[in-house]
Amino acid sequence: MELKEITRDKKQYVIFYLADKKFGVNINQTKEILSNTEMTFVPDSPDFISGIINLRGAVVPVVDLKLRLNIEGQKKNREEKIIIVELDGLTAGMMVDDVKEIEPLTRENIVNLPDLARKVDSDYIEGVGRADKDGELLLLLDLKNVLSNREIEELKKVDS
């Protein structure tokens, strides 16, 4: 993945898939992207937790983003990726079906989600982006708001 030229009017977004749906997250929210990571199942953890991974000696809980966002559908390939993020002092992984590329989006290419399509608690949707090449729409997520404060506290318990 190459980084494209960036200006003040452009932000870089990591473009990824959940089932066959396209999403993006501001690259500033991501620490790294992992693939082929062995995960350990944790009994009695919240439903949306896939397990935990060892990240250079740290135990990191992994959230299944499809489960958390109630997205139905099969993944396109078998190689899931984990996007590592920092949530309120907690390092966590967000499991996605695939990471496609890093795409610069200008402010003009980002619009708010129409009110009719928005749920009351959808603070995790930053907006709707239009990719330069094909004009295809993608939801831009704010991964810091995907989990509630209560859920982050639950994750901290899984972590310890």
TrEMBL record:
InterPro entries linked to this entry: CheW, CheW-like_dom_sf, CheW-lke_dom
GO BP: chemotaxis; signal transduction
A GO cellular component annotation in the UniProt record: cytosol
Domain of life: Bacteria
Domain called CheW-like: residue spans: 10-152
UniProt name for this protein: Purine-binding chemotaxis protein CheW
Lineage: Bacteria, Bacillati, Bacillota, Clostridia, Halanaerobiales
